[in-house]
Design goal:
The complex is a heterodimer of chains A (325) and B (94).
Chain A: H1 15-26, H2 39-58, H3 60-64, H4 73-98, H5 104-112, H6 130-150, H7 156-184, H8 188-207, H9 217-224, H10 232-250, E1 260-262, E2 267-269, H11 275-285, H12 289-302, H13 304-324
Antiparallel strand pairs in A: 1-2
Helix pairs in contact in A: 2-4, 4-7, 6-7, 6-8, 6-10
Chain B: E1 7-13, E2 20-27, H1 31-42, E3 50-55, H2 67-71
Antiparallel strand pairs in B: 1-2, 1-3
Classes of the chains: A mainly alpha (325), B alpha+beta (94).
Chain lengths: 325, 94
């Protein structure tokens, strides 16, 4: 998902406090910034919310790539609004992470120097306009699968930012599907582009949920803390079951010859993505990994004087006000 | 020396007649800047008719540890709620 392979931190706190904390979570109470929490809960959440925030911000890049080349003025305005929303989502999440005691600059620096990750999906290039359709339809669709249950996560600020994000996310997916419909019902060349976009984004979208976590100890801890609500496999299955009929509606073919309805489990059987590719991308070897971090680094460096100038201007205005009083 | 823009808490009045409600926070150099950013971050879909921004550092919050001394005294004052009193049906709406 937007937060993948989050290692939950072992915790060495007072067992009595831990039990009381777990009881609050089990009772469905929200944990708020000033409440006592295990050090591991705090650390895991910083990593998870931080990675989620970074994904929203880096996620602007593959789509930003097409703003100047959108086919109509309306499509351009819509895409611009969508990319602006992603910036907003990143900001809601950064603020949620900051309530745990990490600063915005620290978070940014951890992304830039590789200590924190962003979702593997954004390390893939967007080669044609149809990719804007596929990203909205598949990538935002997969994100919604994960984010809707996260609205009930145990950490209050995280849950509340998820509520805001989910409200806006559905526009994103629908605008993507709308592009796909237009392309799939267009000329032969447009149909080919739509199919090609689906072919390229299908497996990376399945990877978004992360590898099977049946055996993962970290998953178990995160689920007990209610900072992970469903298993990766569960969400992936849900995503496939929802998406296959939509592809059929578009008249496009999912690039998986093994895909078949399984009556017994009431869902589709489907092929796993190539997990070695996933791990490689997470390590920073995706097709656009270098480019993405370079773009973030450039924005950070180029913005330095603006950050400083704003502060200097505010200090000057404050001083003038004091002098006038 | 490195310094970050201070943190502001943002409150928005959703519609005329409602009170301002906390919606989240953001960083900005000063109040004017905070209002501009709040507009972009929190009202892209006409979510509000009025914005308040408050420096987060100026907010004093109660401590979770004081929960008992602050709220327990209300526990034995159920008579503050109208349902405490039984009014006969014959009296009519009250």
């Amino acid at each position: 998902m937007y937060a993948q392979m989050i290692k939950s931190e072992a915790t060495q706190d007072d067992p009595e406090k831990l039990a009381a904390f777990q009881a609050r979570i089990d009772a469905g109470e929200k944990i708020e910034p000033k409440d006592w929490m295990p050090a591991g809960y705090r650390k895991t959440l910083i990593r998870q919310i931080g990675q989620h925030a970074h994904s929203e911000i880096v996620g602007q890049l593959p789509e930003g790539n097409w703003i100047t080349r959108a086919p109509t003025l309306e499509r351009k305005a819509i895409l611009l609004a969508k990319v602006q929303d992603e910036a907003g989502h990143g900001l809601y999440l950064y603020c949620a992470a900051e309530t745990l005691g990490v600063s915005r600059d620290e978070l940014t620096e951890m992304l830039l120097d590789g200590r924190m990750k962003y979702s593997s999906i954004f390390a893939y290039p967007t080669l044609t306009w149809a990719d804007m359709g596929a990203v909205g339809w598949l990538v935002d669709g997969a994100a919604i699968m994960n984010q809707v249950p996260l609205q009930r996560t145990s950490y209050g600020p995280y849950a509340r930012s998820m509520v805001r994000i989910c409200k806006e996310e559905s526009f994103h997916q629908r605008q993507g599907f709308d592009i796909m419909m237009k392309m799939a019902n267009g000329t032969e060349a447009q149909k080919r582009m739509a199919q090609d976009a689906l072919n390229r984004f299908w497996y990376p979208s399945l990877m978004m949920f992360g590898p099977s976590d049946k055996e993962s100890v970290h998953s178990e801890q995160s689920m007990a803390w209610k900072i992970k609500m469903n298993s990766n496999d569960e969400l992936r299955q849900k995503f496939v079951d929802q998406t296959v009929p939509q592809a059929e509606y578009l008249g496009l073919t999912i690039p998986d010859e093994t895909l078949a309805w399984n009556d017994e489990k009431g869902g589709y059987d489907f092929a796993e993505p190539d997990w070695s590719e996933f791990f490689d991308v997470l390590k920073g070897n995706g097709p656009c990994s270098v480019e993405r971090i370079e773009a973030r680094q450039k924005a950070w460096d180029d913005g330095a004087w603006v950050r400083e100038a704003r502060l200097a201007h505010a200090a000057k205005k404050r001083a003038a006000k004091v002098a006038a009083e | 020396m490195k310094q970050e823009w201070p943190l502001w808490e943002v409150f928005i009045r959703g519609q005329h007649g409602l009170s301002h409600r906390h919606v989240g926070s953001l960083h900005a150099a000063d109040a004017e800047h905070a209002i501009q950013n709040a507009r972009d971050v929190y009202t892209r879909r006409k979510e509000g008719v009025s914005i308040w921004v408050v420096p987060a550092a100026d907010i004093t919050a109660s401590s979770p540890d004081d929960k008992g001394s602050l709220y327990d005294p209300a526990d034995d004052k159920v008579y503050r709620h109208p349902t405490f009193f039984d009014i006969p049906d014959d009296v009519g709406a009250m």
